[in-house]
Amino acid sequence: MIGAIVICINDENRPNDIPISKWIVKGNEYTVVAFDKLGMMNGEIGIQVAEIDLTGCQYTYFISSRFAFPIDGPEEDLTAALAKEMEAIEVEKIEKEPVYIQSIGRIKRHNHNDNYFSKGFKF
């Protein structure tokens, strides 16, 4: 999704902390430069756009539901596409992290590249 072109479909209810000069405009195109789950917004996905720098604002992301792909872009819903990509990123992170297993009072380090844990259990 990084680099994707999106169109603002909802510019209503601007938070007071974001000045008008840093607010999105309905109908304008923006370029996604970052996205993340927003803890303070119940895990909704937020995006940052190249065209607006929110440095100095309380909010550093726009809610993804304010945007959609252009008509000639992917048919998938933007928020659903971002969620799918976030899930893939999370799985990739998990696969790269080492796993620690306690075995008879000792901790053994296993990489996800290993095919079997101790005692032959496959993961």
Report the portion of residues in β strands. Answer: 25-35%
- Largest sheet properties: 5 strands, antiparallel
Order of strands side by side in the largest beta sheet? 4-3-2-1-5
Count, helices: 1
Low-confidence stretches: 113-123
Shape: globular
> What is the number of E strands?
7
**Secondary-structure element order, as H and E?**
EEEEEHEE
User: Mean pLDDT, nearest integer?
Assistant: 78
What is the share of helical residues? 10-25%
Number of domains: 1
Class by SSE composition:
alpha+beta
CA distance, first residue to last residue: 30 Å
Radius of gyration based on Cα positions: 20 Å
Provide tags for this entry.
alpha+beta, two-stranded antiparallel ribbon, 15% helix, disordered C terminus, 28% strand, 5-stranded antiparallel β-sheet, 1 helix, 123 residues, single chain, 7 strands
Outline the fold blueprint.
Layout lengths: L4 E4 L20 E10 L5 E6 L12 E2 L3 E2 L9 H19 L2 E5 L2 E5 L13
Antiparallel strand pairs: 1-2, 1-5, 2-3, 3-4, 6-7
Describe the structure.
This protein is of the alpha+beta class and about 120 residues long. It has one domain (about 5-95). Helices cover about 15% and strands about 30% of the residues. The chain is built from 1 helix and 7 strands. The strands form 2 sheets. A 5-stranded antiparallel beta sheet has the order 4-3-2-1-5. The chain starts with a strand and ends in a 13-residue tail after the last strand. Residues about 115-123 have low confidence and may be disordered.
